[in-house]
Design brief:
8 helices, two-stranded parallel sheet, 217 residues
Amino acid sequence: MKVLVIGANGQIGKHLVKMIQDTSDMTAKAMIRKEEQKDYFEKLGAETAVVDLESSIESIQAATEDVDAVVFTAGSGPNTGKDKTIMVDLDGAVKTIEAAKKAGVKRYVMVSSFDTTREEIQRAPEGFAPYVVAKHYADDWLRKADMDYTIVHPGGLTNDDGTGKVTLKEKTDRGNVPREDIAHVLLETLQKPSTIGKEFQVIEGDQTISESLDQIK
């Protein structure tokens, strides 16, 4: 399986590309924004595609033509304005879904926000609400796109070392989770067809990632 990792230069994306490259039956294609970001991924033996999420659907489609699955783990980041949140976290995500469809790629895994319900939009602090709105509509677009999708809702992301253990449920209490563990969840999600059509929240816990995913109904 060849996997296009969108947002590969982010922290989750870097972990995921390395994990994919360490498997025997998967390869990664890293979608990045800048030529100077290539070196890290080429040293891992991964392909790269330099594409800006604010470019056209056709530009993104060119990167998806030879892959079997797409993982969206891109984000505008906490230090950008509402305009970039709309352009990357919403429109960028929607364009990648449409590009994958045009290329005939069915498997799509989305890294979302912990809670993207309408109720959460109303509860969210003013500075965070635009991000929740963007994720709400991107998630909804994916659900309706006739894709083999999975939506992963991580808790508060940390840079702690991954433990390989999580709490993973359709609904769980809020909590934190290492980015490395989310990358591991994404890897195993791609390997488990039983996760197709599912979405779940993930925080740190005491059950192995594989066991947790096997219990998702």
